From TrEMBL:
<protein>
    <submittedName>
        <fullName>Uncharacterized protein</fullName>
    </submittedName>
</protein>
Amino acid sequence: MRKMIYVLVIVAVLIVCRGCIPSLMGGVSKKTAAENLTQYLEKNFKGTLEFEELDRFFNEGNMNPNMFRAVVYEKACPEILFVSYFDAKKILTEDGDKPTASYRKTIPEQYKDAKTDYTARELIRKHFKGRLSKIDFGYFETTAFFNHKAEVSEIKSITDDFEKQLNIYKDSLVVSNTSRIVFNMEEVNGLTLKVDFDSESDKFTGQRFGVWRKSKSYTNIEESLKPEMTNYLSSNNFDLQLHGTNAFYLRQTDFAEGVWVNFLEKKGTVPNDKGRWQDPVIAFIFVYYDINTGAIKKQFVEKRTVFDSYMDELERIGKNLPAEYH
C-alpha cells in the first residue's frame, strides 16, 4: 500500500513538472503571452483583430519555451481567422513577428491571406445561392447543405460546378481545406456524401464519391451490417471475427449500392498492449449492400495475401472493385 502511494506521488510530481518545464527553461507565463499578444494586435491593427484559444506551443520540434499558438480573428467578421504561432517574448520587439524556419508567415501576411480566403468563400457562396442552403468552409473539409431531396444528376452537376469554382479560386483559398466536400443531405436524402478531389496537380480533378464516415448514415449502415456479417461467419464455420477496420465503397454511377469491406482476425483475438505488435488481420469480408432497400445482395470472404499498411490495403481493395465503383 505504501509503495502504491509513493508511485502515485511520483507520477503527480512528474505531471506537475512536465507542465512547469517551459517556465523552468525561462518561458514566459500564459498570462504574459496574452498581454503581449494583445499589445501587439492593438499596436498594429488598432482593435481590428482579437484572439482566442491561446496555448503554449513548446515541443521537441521548436524547443522554444516562449512559443505560443492562438486563433486570431477579425472582430467585425469572426469568420476571417487564422492560427498564429508566435514567440511571446519577442512579439513586442522589432523582429518579433519575423517568420522562422517552421512558421514562414507573419501575422499581417496571415491576416491578408485570411481576408483573401474569405472573399473567395463569399463569391462561391453567392454562386450557389438558391441551389445550396448553406456552405461551411472548414479546416478539414467544406460542408454543403441541401434543403431539398436531391437526385443523383443534381448532385453530380453541383459537384462539377464546385470543381470549376474551386479551380477558379484555388490560389485564393489558402486557409480553407477544399480537397474534400461533404454534402449534408441527412434530413432530406437520409445520406451524407463526401467528395474527394485530387488536388496534387495544379487544379482540382478526380471526383470520388463516398458516404461520409462521420455521418449518421455511415453509422446506420455499419450497425445494420455487423450482425449480418457475424451471422455469415458463424453459419459458414469461419473461425474469424470482425476487426475494427472497415470501409464503405459507393457505386459512383447511381449511389444506390455500396460494398462494405471489413477486416477480419482469428476468433478470440484480443488487443495485445504488451510486447511487439503483430498484425492480426488475416482476411476480409465483402458485403454488397443495397442502400435504398437495406438488402444484402451478396457477401463473401477473401484471404489476405498482401500485407501492406491498412490504408494501402483499403486503396488496393477499392481499385480492384468493379468499374462502376471507380
